[in-house]
Design brief:
The chain has five helices and six strands, in the order E-E-H-E-H-E-H-E-H-E-H. The chain is an alpha/beta fold. A six-stranded mixed β-sheet has the order 1-6-5-2-3-4. Strand 3, helix 2 (about 50-65) and strand 4 form a beta-alpha-beta unit. Helix 1 packs across helix 2 (about 50-65), helix 3 crosses helix 4 and helix 4 (about 105-115) packs parallel to helix 5 (about 130-155).
């Protein structure tokens, strides 16, 4: 499950379109929280009539996690926005370090974008793809997405 785990200010669970994948990410985030990896859980992801972040927040509360330990970003529609909005949420509280939870193939790009947003990524937890075929597809998608994400993060229009 965990590629690397360290103490952090917050555990950030990134949203995704598939409900099964989202649940796996959420389960990992909750496990890290319960193990004391960080005092806060940040759920990041918008979209749909019920944003991914709100779905995760409700599930975490139903699991028994305290509302005061949960922060949500309901507006992000992509990884660049996840990083930017999470940085805004945490910077406002004087926090900087995060443990990222996402799919394994996505962690490299997410880590780069979160660092460019000014956050320190102290650990990662990657959800494995359900099959080799999906892993290959996800890796190819990330190879294509990385240059665009970097361009967006580094150019002035990316800061909006």
């Amino acid at each position: 499950m965990a590629d690397k785990c360290c103490e952090a200010d917050a555990i950030v669970v990134l949203g995704c379109r598939g409900s099964a994948a989202l649940r796996k990410r959420l389960e990992i985030g909750i496990r890290f929280f319960e193990a004391g990896a960080a005092p806060l859980l940040v759920f990041s992801g918008g979209g749909g009539p019920l944003p991914e972040a709100e779905f995760m927040r409700r599930a975490a509360i139903a699991h028994g996690l305290p509302r005061t330990a949960l922060l949500i970003d309901r507006v992000s529609g992509n990884t660049f926005e996840n990083a930017r909005e999470t940085a805004r949420l945490l910077n406002g509280r004087g926090l900087r370090s995060v443990l990222l939870v996402s799919d394994r193939a996505h962690l490299l790009r997410a880590t780069v974008l979160f660092r460019l947003a000014g956050l320190q990524v102290t650990g990662q937890a990657g959800v494995p793809a359900p099959s080799l075929w999906r892993q290959v597809g996800a890796t190819l998608r990330e190879i294509v997405a990385l240059p665009w994400s970097l361009l967006r993060a580094l150019l002035p229009f990316g800061s909006r």
